[in-house]
């Protein structure tokens, strides 16, 4: 349990900073295009990146001990669709005629796990529809691809870090995650009328660009400086990694 708590605490501390670093290039581009940074666009971009990082942490954490993973004997994958329905019918304590079983039924893993998999991608579908203006069929395909990335991450044992998967590759997760993205798309259509449009966000940024104050100039300098720092850091990391990896035989 100690490892789990530490991993979760690290995720909570790390993802706001990572989200800011990932969103920084967008802020730089938007500032140089409009002469100002749209607060709404920065807000939505930061929230979207934070959501993706949080979702990723949720599917990989807690990180177990590799020695423990090596001894696991559980199945690596489930390729039988709708297994979650059969498990609900077999294991869930729900008795429609007995009210006292309803709470236990709702809190049972056979309900909580599928509900979590649906809820995981509802924000993704909502963002694609509202912010990126994707049609419903592209939202469905994108949600499936995101879910497939998550499942392959688990199947690969976190890209080979672990000797075998420590979580199940489940075809039901693909179905439920895709359904969640579709639901998010529908929910976004309901709330879009009360959210700012692209034209409103860009008009606000352009209007703010007309009056360049000292603080605005300072903000622009900070954004440029942070973008340059991020680029220099990435180049340094890339050079360091290249220096440690020997060239393949076909290049020598």
Automatic annotation (TrEMBL):
InterPro entries recorded for this chain?
Teicoplanin_resist-assoc, VanZ-like
Keywords assigned by UniProt, alphabetized: Membrane, Transmembrane, Transmembrane helix
* Signal peptide as annotated in the record: none
Task: List each copy of the VanZ-like domain by range.
Answer: 48-191
Pfam families reported in the protein's UniProt record = VanZ
TM region(s), chain numbering: 12-31, 43-63, 111-132, 139-162, 218-242
Q: What is the name attached to this protein's record?
A: VanZ-like domain-containing protein
Source organism of the structure = Schleiferilactobacillus harbinensis
